[in-house]
Design brief:
Radius of gyration: 14 Å
Strand content: over 45%
Largest sheet: 7 strands, mixed
Oligomer: single chain
Number of strands: 11
Distance between the termini: 40 Å
Number of helices: 0
Shape: globular
């Protein structure tokens, strides 16, 4: 059974930092592209950052220069280091995995809440 378990969310003041982690099980992690999405209530889920199995990264314009995505294939984890957080970064953040050769093999975590507020 595939599981993606996020951790690291919470409340942080503007300008602060948080590190999200996603632990994957039930998949051959090295064959999956990984990503973080976020979603506010009533809004569409949007891509925040992605990293391919070959460590190629991609970021939403709104987080470039502030967020860093990384993966550890030995530990089956993907992380999102979030710096210089802004109130508009407040959202539920979701871990996503998609097989590099078969997009139908796609899985989501349950999400972790990030709230940026003073």
């Amino acid at each position: 059974q595939v599981q993606l378990v996020e951790s690291g969310g919470g409340l942080v003041q503007p300008g602060g930092s948080l590190r999200l982690s996603c632990a994957a099980s039930g998949i051959l992690f090295s064959t999956y592209d990984m990503a973080w999405y976020r979603q506010a209530p009533g809004k569409q889920r949007e891509l925040v950052a992605a990293i391919t199995r070959g460590d190629i990264t991609n970021y939403a314009d709104s987080v470039k220069g502030r967020f860093i995505i990384s993966r550890d294939n030995a530990k089956n984890t993907v992380s999102l280091q979030m710096n210089s957080l802004k109130p508009e970064d407040t959202d539920a953040y979701y871990c996503n995995s998609r097989h590099y050769a078969n997009a139908r093999r796609e899985y989501w975590g349950q999400g972790t809440q990030v709230t940026v507020s003073s």
